[in-house]
């Protein structure tokens, strides 16, 4: 991007210490937005996954270095009170919110452990811990609903944009997918459709957004050969998709839809940080 189409816009990206959330924050930052980033790791390493790098302070600093303004706020989105404090802070400092990206998610710990502890990710549902359901729905779907509900008045004031970060797994009905993950992502997609119905009269857009294979910190820890990175995306590419959608004056026409970052790249003409344009992996899940 050579311009700052989101200058003066205020965004909230949940779960932005690392991974896709961090990339979304960076994509919005390079477009000139003020970006509030939330998560549990203000500095240092994730308490439950110390092998993963990334923290809120680093994300916020990178957002600012790219031309935006990064503001870190510690928040465990499983606690509604903490989420409310985040929205009250944004209200007090800006009085409105233009972009909400619901990215925070729970239950990924097993997926990112490339040892015997992570092998249960693809196991039959009765062989998985029951807590996985609560992690996916509590720190994922419910957190997205609560954050959007609390943010609604601020978004309505600016005819804003809500993006639920989801994935193709929510549409896949066959194979050995992780059952709680499949159901939770499907719920996130349906939520975006329902939110769109409520928001449309107020000019607020609500969508689900699917990344492709993203080179997150966890994915890059995978054993050699576990992934084919020839058609992969940086986390920041997902952020560029959100930024272009937010800058689109006709985005309300898409409200309720499930969008794909790579397909938005083709449509809007943006590339990844390496100059490449990833291809959509939709066909692999159809």
TrEMBL record:
Pfam families the record matches: adh_short (PF00106)
SUPFAM superfamilies for this protein: NAD(P)-binding Rossmann-fold domains
Domain of life: Bacteria
InterPro entries reported in the protein's UniProt record: NAD(P)-bd_dom_sf, SDR_fam
Protein name: NAD(P)-dependent dehydrogenase, short-chain alcohol dehydrogenase family
Lineage of the organism: Bacteria, Thermotogati, Deinococcota, Deinococci, Deinococcales
